[in-house]
Design brief:
This protein has 114 residues and is mainly beta. Helices cover 4% and strands 44% of the residues. The relative contact order is 0.14.
Length: 114
């Protein structure tokens, strides 16, 4: 059984599989630190904003490319949970919007008013 570890590069987080009984480390494809084990222990599930839209992906630990689980075209994923039987996926999605307003007031001090 392997335990996930990560190392940071200039391009983002990368996932490593570290065999707990010894052996070579295995690098997995780029993924964020939100990756979690699937209940069967054969793959990792994670979300990514690659391609401009946030979607859920499954990365087999045996190797090969990650496969998309969802096909959302907009909004961001904030959190997710997979049912123990792997038949249902709960995803918290939405938009982040913010406005910036700068308000400033310049008052003269008592000495400057004279």
């Amino acid at each position: 059984m392997a335990a996930p570890g990560s190392f940071h590069t200039g391009n983002g987080e990368r996932m490593l599989l570290v065999p707990t009984t010894g052996g070579a480390l295995r690098k997995l494809e780029m993924m964020g630190p939100n990756a979690n084990w699937m209940p069967d222990g054969r793959s990792l599930i994670f979300f990514s904003g690659r391609g401009g839209a946030f979607n859920m992906h499954r990365q087999p630990v045996a190797g090969g490319p990650a496969t998309p689980i969802t096909q959302f075209t907009a909004e961001q994923i904030f959190a997710y949970a997979l049912s123990p039987d792997q038949k249902q996926l709960a995803v918290v999605r939405g938009r982040v919007s913010s406005d910036v307003v700068l308000v400033s007031s310049v008052e003269k001090s008592g000495a400057e008013k004279k």
